[in-house]
User: What shape does this take?
Amino acid sequence: MSRRPGLPKTGGRQKGTSNKKTQDLEDQLKNLGIDVLSQIGTLLPQLHPEKQIDTLMSLMAFLYPKRKAVEQKIEVQSNEVQISELSAEELNLEAARLHEFSAETTYEPEIAEAHQTLAKYYRSLGPTPAPPV
Assistant: This one.
């Protein structure tokens, strides 16, 4: 017979009590004299450092809850320009401006220098000569 809605649950395992399979496994390990935690402590230092990290990371899943992914919506406003509307000179100038901006905003000197070099190159292209008449 089913119980009426709203009545508290009765019977079953108490909170924190192991299920039958888990209890059987713990009993068998105890009968064999195997202490899992001490075995891990003994064997872990003998592993290669990368394997130690892998092992510890897999054990962390049992200690800490997994975190849910957080979604963020980022809206970027840009001044998009149709490339078909630009002349070759305008494209070169735009490329030079982008590389100059990247050179100013990067923290790594080698990358900033490369952007400056590219910006100088695009600026050096300058206006193209007019076609002969």
The CA atoms of residues 100 and 116 lie 6 Å apart. Helices lie at 20-32, 36-43, 49-63, 88-105, 109-125. The chain has a mean pLDDT of 81. The radius of gyration is 33 Å.
